[in-house]
Amino acid sequence: GDARVRGQTGVVSERRGSYPFIDFRLLNNTTLSGEIGTKKKVKRLLSFQRYFHASRLLRGIVPQTSLYLLDEDYLGQARHMLSKVGMWDFDIFLFDRLTNGNSLVTLLCHLFNVHGLIHHFQLDMVTLHRFFVMVQEDYHSQNPYHNAVHAADVTQAMHCYLREPKLANFLTPSDIMLGLLAAAAHDVDHPGVNQPFLIKTKHHLASLYQNVSVLENHHWRSTIGMLRESRLLAHLPKEVTQDIEQQLGSLILATDINRQNEFLIRLKSHLDNQDLRLEDAQDRHFMLQIALKCADICNPCRVWDLSKQWSERVCEEFYRQGDLEQKFELEISPLCNQQKDTIPSIQIGFMTYIVEPLFERWAQFTGNTPLSENMLNHLRRNKAKWRSLLHKQHSSSRSNDHSGQVTGSQEQTLNEEETP
């Protein structure tokens, strides 16, 4: 049915099913592969309702929240993990297996309880659980990276950051709830392709948001739609719910990687001038934006085994987009060419230009706490491991060269990538 929700402000918010994205299962269906070969047909596919991805709730099928139906051994292990949810080496992949794919719902219920949000905001537990299920179900499980496990990982990281003394001493219950909700829903209904792809295929969302923060706007509007549909906050005053919706938007929109420099410059200015006043709601909100940005890209700062899994997943998603672009004779986007863009080179570039500058500033803000030092240490070790793997790749490619020579362009690339 029509999944749009008109709220108090009169804005029509998005819910999944209203705005179709590419369905990879549909595109990869062998019965269609012979028929689809033109850009025109791609656009036609893009215009289909994504009924495969439509929320099971909207179709009247209530998902099994199987955490409570699991074997007692699994329940015990999941509970034990939750007792250590504030630890940086928290294994979200293991937790997702122990909760039978319900890591996001289980984590959110626990954190809302731990932070006293259920009592403070007088939230109905059944409604709260239903809302969390809606959010989890609105992620695409077939995405290698942008799925509900990523959302749970970002939420767990956000919980760790909210406990940093420099921030925790000033946070209100509203700040904490906004931080956790934004982390949980920041990539909801992500299609597994990036903004440039949506723009060049003339996707209607790109037109709707005029090619600016297209995905982030969609994640925000989808979240508002679910909030209103669930009526989770319906008992709160109208002005409070409107403020929550707007602040959620401001937080989620901050995750747009194209705005990275804007936030870094502002953070640097605050730190250099020492003029952050966390008693001020505006400054607290800005630091929540920074915290969410850190949580969103913290994978390189995790222990190697977890970090490597996330790196492989995000690159797999890039490569799928590249394969799709090649299949439909579109220009292959940067980082999406599996033949040219290796995982080590992608990760080294990401760490150098995006992750390091942000986390060094975050450490400066927190006062180099044990967590910040731990993250930076993991980041440096992980980068060294990727450099080592990159070097092995180059050595292998050189040994396989029949002439035994490295071309000038290869040597130049090697030198550039090996330079700290």
TrEMBL record:
It is an enzyme of class 3 (hydrolase). InterPro entries: HD/PDEase_dom (IPR003607), PDEase (IPR023088), PDEase_catalytic_dom (IPR002073), PDEase_catalytic_dom_sf (IPR036971), PDEase_CS (IPR023174). SMART domains: HDc. Residues 70-393 form the PDEase domain. Binds 2 divalent metal cations per subunit. Site 1 may preferentially bind zinc ions, while site 2 has a preference for magnesium and/or manganese ions. GO terms for biological process: signal transduction. Keywords: cAMP, Hydrolase, Metal-binding. AMP binds at H146, N147, A148, V149, H150, D187, D296, Q347. Its EC number is 3.1.4.-. PROSITE patterns: PDEASE_I_1 (PS00126), PDEASE_I_2 (PS51845). Coiled coil: none annotated. Belongs to the cyclic nucleotide phosphodiesterase family. PDE7 subfamily. This is Phosphodiesterase.
